[in-house]
Design goal:
This protein has 7 helices and 8 strands; from the N terminus they run ααααααβββββββαβ. The chain is α+β, with helices and mostly antiparallel strands.
Amino acid sequence: MTDWQVIGPQGREMVARVFEGLETSGLLRTSLGMSPTETVTETRGELSSEAARAPDRPSPSALWAFATGTESQPSPRLAAALLRDPSLHLDLAAMLAGAAIGEAPRVAAAATTIKVTERVGQGFSLRLLPSRANPAQTYVLIRLEDPEQFAARLVAMTGTGTVATLDLDAAAQDEIQMLCASEDPIIQAIANPEARIWLT
């Protein structure tokens, strides 16, 4: 997780270009029915318009762009794909883990259906605290284990593939404090015991 944080903008751009190249190569080989070791020049015939169409599954670069925060919100296509394709959950979770400074797993293997108000993960702890001034609002309180770390975004993904995000303010006195509507998707996702959480 640390390596991604320190490579800088140029390094991130390079990784994105590598993903795009691998993606293009993979789509071309799949469309042509080629084996992983076969070269394009060894394949006869032209690519049909039907075969040239990209599959409905979001590309690795689309997942990576969201995981690293290049895209702060999942696109409508990615959000819909996550809801219908559980295998994408693992792909996105792996990329988020690589880009994150902290990660919190599901709560006790989702053994409880009671809404969660506290999370303890790798690198941080989190609490949901209802506002005394306005019961319709809830504070998200995040404390980083390493005060030198910086988190710009919180990402939560439920067991069904619903993704919610929250852009974070800078920490004050070693704690990030965000005030949200209690019915906001991010509050509902954090409270869901089946949700996994990342700080990026």
